[in-house]
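=== RUN LOG ===
request id: a7f3
mode: sequence -> structure
chains: 1
length: 60
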Amino acid sequence: MNSKNKTDFKTLEVRLLRNYRPEGEGTEKRSTGEELELPIREAKRVIGLGIAERNDPLPN
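=== RESULT ===
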């Protein structure tokens, strides 16, 4: 059985508060203000570090 759990495949929309270089994507740096989707674990990490904030729509 695969050791990855279901949250490894879900993503979360974030907006960058600072420049950021995603892990595993080579050297492509992302700029402040960009909106992107990250795997949940990475999104939680960068939000916790103050690099990004959640940018997903509010539920109805």
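=== NOTES ===
The longest helix spans residues 40-48.
Residues 9-54 form one domain.
=== END ===
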